[in-house]
Amino acid sequence: MTTKQRVLAFLEKNKGTAISGQELADTLKISRTSIWKAINLLKEEGYAIEAITNKGYCLSASSDLLSAEAIRPFLLPELKERPFHIFKTTESTNNEAKKIIVEQANTEAIVLTEEQTKGKGRLGRFFYSPPKTGIYMSLILKPQMTTMDATLITTAAAVAVCLAIEKVTKKKPKIKWVNDIYLDGYKISGVLTEAVTNFENGTIETIILGIGLNFRMPLEGFPAELQSIAGSLLSTENPEITRNELIAEITNQFHHIYQQIETREYLEAYKERCFVFGKKIDFRQGKQEFEAIPIDIDQQGGLIVKMENGEQRTLSYGEITI
Ligand code: BTN
């Protein structure tokens, strides 16, 4: 850890409280000049650190710049060593993840950014990713499974996002099959899973699990075309929770559910939150459009629907409209 990272970790731990330069120097066993330099570097990066006369340095309680130092304290012990790659801006964290796995083939890692300029949604869509108000994260995972099971990762991620939100905010988000998270009728989060397969033996070498979440309402609001669909988790300017905390909780919840992929235990939690059952839906297969009523989720995360003629079908990918 660099001096700057150590100072940041200490300030994050004591957010909202003034710490004297002397206390920082004594605790971290570094000179006051080094502390001063680190504080200046952090301020240049945008950290709201106030120097209070006779009291010391105080990182604003509402500070929420993404950093490994702010996320790690909330992570499960077994995840604390996981490497982070954090960007101010990038086209897409899923694309960054693909570059990272070329260089570091065997590491599971967490990729984050404050903003995405070409955020990718499912079915070739764009995921609106303005600076600082959203969570744009990609988990690099190294599973041992076939392509079939990769779809389960997506449903597992939807459950993880819901459980994390429930834990840190007490709100009750719902899932629209397959992986859209809704709150009060608006979509607040989506998941885009990409798999890197070994062509020789058909196994998945890496899964890139991309999660996008509208944490706060963007200052300029959502673009016109999203206004009737998109919502955000929190509407207040200074929320009690931070993106850093929620990122850690999503990572923790996913880690826990990931252990249940084989047994499918988590599918119960998925079904409990899925709000499409019993509702009339439309979906496309090829060029044809169909109407049906969803009745269940199968063991692969597919949606079992009842067609108008009473026939049952299972949808394994795509999108439904309610
Ligand atoms: C969807 O709702 O269609 C899926 C949206 C997934 C967005 C996330 S944001 C982080 C990761 N990087 C991307 O480019 N996309 C995913």
TrEMBL record:
Residues 69-262 form the BPL/LPL catalytic domain. Its EC number is 6.3.4.15. Belongs to the biotin--protein ligase family. It is an enzyme of class 6 (ligase). The gene is birA. This is Bifunctional ligase/repressor BirA. It comes from Carnobacterium antarcticum. Acts both as a biotin--[acetyl-CoA-carboxylase] ligase and a repressor. GO terms for molecular function: biotin--[biotin carboxyl-carrier protein] ligase activity. SUPFAM superfamilies: C-terminal domain of transcriptional repressors (SSF50037), Class II aaRS and biotin synthetases (SSF55681), Winged helix' DNA-binding domain (SSF46785). Keywords: ATP-binding, Biotin, DNA-binding, Ligase, Nucleotide-binding, Repressor, Transcription, Transcription regulation. CDD domains: BPL. Pfam families: BPL_C (PF02237), BPL_LplA_LipB (PF03099), HTH_11 (PF08279). It catalyses: biotin + L-lysyl-[protein] + ATP = N(6)-biotinyl-L-lysyl-[protein] + AMP + diphosphate + H(+). NCBIfam families: birA_ligase. Biotin binds at residues 92-94, 116, 187. Residues 21-40 bind DNA.
